[in-house]
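Ligand-bound model needed. beta-D-fucopyranose.
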Amino acid sequence: MSNPASPPAVDVLDERPGLTFPPGFLWGAATAAYQIEGAAAEDGRAPSIWDTFSHTEGRVVAGHTGDVACDHYHRLGEDVALMAELGLKSYRFSVSWSRVQPAGSGAVNPQGLDFYRRLVDELLANGIEPWLTLYHWDLPQPLEDAGGWPARDTAARFADYTTVMADALGDRVRYWTTLNEPWCSAFLGYGSGVHAPGRTNGADAVRAGHHLMLGHGLAVQALRAARPTAEVGVTVNLYPVDPASDTPADRDAARRIDGLANRFFLDPLLRGSYPEDLVADLSTVTDFDHVRDGDLATISTPLDLVGVNYYSRHVVAAPVEGVPADPAPSCWPGSEDVRFVSRGVPVTDMGWEIDAPGLTETLRRVHGYTELPLYVTENGSAFVDSVVDGQVDDVDRLAYFDAHLRAAHEAIDAGVPLRGYFAWSLMDNFEWAWGYTKRFGMIHVDYDSQVRTPKSSAKWYASVIRRNGLAAQ
Ligand code: FCB
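Prediction:
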């Protein structure tokens, strides 16, 4: 019998059904090496491009660096225990190439490998499936000094490093992703220069994008050779790109940005070709003479899964006549004059528009390319959190997750073989050029004391994992 004095269980103004995900759905959380590990100069680790970049004045907000970060290198046991409390089925982490192969090639650092062996063993002991990303943006500095990703040789070095990791951990790690978000590595790292290594040359960005994908293809082959049973994929960050209006000029602006943001990667990786319109758009930037016979076949080496990182949507409009393009270095080479339009919808602390339906749209689009199983390998939001009486009630983040999980479920209903979801992020961490000023974690980190405090979203996510779905609201 219901108690007439108690509030209704369901708010009729916001009545959303409970949802159950398919059996075996892989619920996880993600992090990346440079964002959490710290111990930057310990046990034989050498600098990566992110060490150099963050130590260069003016590159990262407030001069923050990843030297200490969340000190995860020394708190591995405590952190895995927190994951176990959350009930995570899987944990997606990345390996610091500079820890394992400090020069980026040649000698392997056994202490570096040991750290990842301990991490993987600890995860397995807690029933958590390790999901290993080989490259989350932290190229060993000596490889950048030798030309970085715009240089073809870097792809071969990446394949060698992949073999080292497959030999060391392939018996215990089933899920592997080669690259995380090659768009960011290429276009933020070498185009706009807001990420490491901070170079600003459109042609270099395009070359970097190609060699990242070539490295990916070679790495897939290296993994297959070393570990035939591994589940291998790549993670791309995708955005729906909408025209601000239905005019041909705005639609053309959307086509161009969609080419650079999405099809630059999806088409070579999943179809073995660059889109013709994209090559034409980039003709003022590069003649693609870096692409050699056989590259696209390597790049499109068959995969076992595709990882999708989703955060927001882009809305764009045609250049305004008479208004010159912003001369600042750009992550949209050849399309610098396209305008990004804000719709005035709610945004996160990154200023990114919140657009859950865009996740459904993105997953359906990728499914249009491939029948492969898909995973959301990152999705999440930064908000300003406050600790009150030792608690962080991050309702905005929780609502973001809830809305995006509903959107993910809608994709499943529409026939998308979505097999898992990784929240970004397990804990607050070094948010690249924003340093520690943006918090994405489900677990709050006090950077002075390194105390971890699960936020409301963490407790809520634990209940989602327990019931394999969402409660009615
Ligand atoms: C993604 C990155 C991840 C994190 C989130 C917020 O682009 O892969 O490391 O910074 O954005």
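The longest helix spans residues 202-226.
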